């Protein structure tokens, strides 16, 4: 890995450029979710160390412990809307702490292609159905654009979608109640350390969408 990749300032700049390009101009407010509490905060040096590990490998095996695998398997049992809710709550709680693992390997052109498809949707139910289709791995244009992306880009996609919810993307209903197993899954993820949480997110968002190669099978 060269020094440019390992520089946290360069990583942050790459994320800012990606986020600026991917969001509609009227929504470029610079607002992001803040961590839910002091327990979710980590130092800049810890973030830098995790960035190095995240960019060095697709998913560090040391972080893919048995408890992470069990938490991923539990996530897979959730219904589509519960999966969306867990992702939303996690990204809201973790805030920008999630993003350092994503932009270092960003492919702006491919990610823009995804958002070109998504941003063309009318705000509301069409957006919700599009996100559901990603979780279901439906074979459609949006899913295929998502399927082309690297794990890092997929992490960034879901961060940006969560960040835009309630702005130009349909928000979670205020009265939405996550079911018991979804709440259990959320608790289990929050009990993981930060690097394990990133590994969990990698493992659950990577298979979503539709890999174009699968169409020929």
Automatic annotation (TrEMBL):
GO cellular component: phycobilisome
InterPro entries: Orange_carotenoid-bd_N, Orange_carotenoid-bd_N_sf
GO terms for biological process, alphabetical: light absorption
SUPFAM superfamilies: Orange carotenoid protein, N-terminal domain
UniProtKB keywords: Antenna complex, Chromophore, Membrane, Phycobilisome, Thylakoid
Annotated segments matching region Disordered: 22-47
Example of a GO MF term: chloride ion binding
Entry-linked Pfam families: Carot_N (PF09150)
Keyword Nucleotide-binding (UniProt): no
Domain OCP N-terminal: from-to ranges: 65-216
Domain of life: Bacteria
Family: Belongs to the orange carotenoid-binding protein family.
Name of this protein: OCP N-terminal domain-containing protein
Biological classification of the source: Bacteria, Bacillati, Cyanobacteriota, Cyanophyceae, Gloeobacterales
């Amino acid at each position: 890995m060269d020094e440019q990749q390992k520089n946290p300032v360069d990583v942050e700049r790459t994320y800012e450029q990606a986020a600026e390009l991917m969001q509609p101009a009227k929504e470029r407010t610079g607002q992001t979710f803040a961590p839910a509490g002091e327990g979710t905060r980590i130092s800049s040096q810890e973030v830098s160390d995790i960035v190095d590990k995240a960019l060095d490998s697709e998913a560090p095996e040391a972080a893919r412990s048995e408890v992470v695998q069990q938490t991923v398997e539990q996530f897979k049992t959730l219904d589509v809307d519960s999966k969306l809710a867990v992702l939303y709550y996690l990204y809201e709680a973790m805030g920008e702490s999630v993003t350092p693992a994503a932009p270092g390997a960003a492919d702006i052109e491919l990610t823009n292609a995804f958002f070109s498809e998504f941003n063309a949707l009318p705000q509301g139910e069409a957006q919700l159905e599009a996100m559901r289709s990603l979780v279901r791995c439906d074979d459609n244009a949006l899913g295929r654009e998502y399927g082309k992306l690297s794990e890092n880009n997929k992490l960034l996609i879901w961060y940006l979608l969560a960040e835009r919810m309630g702005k130009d993307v349909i928000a979670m209903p205020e009265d939405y109640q996550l079911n018991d197993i979804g709440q259990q899954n959320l608790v289990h993820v929050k009990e993981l350390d930060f690097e394990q949480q990133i590994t969990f997110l990698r493992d659950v968002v990577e298979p979503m969408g539709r890999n174009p190669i699968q169409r020929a099978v």
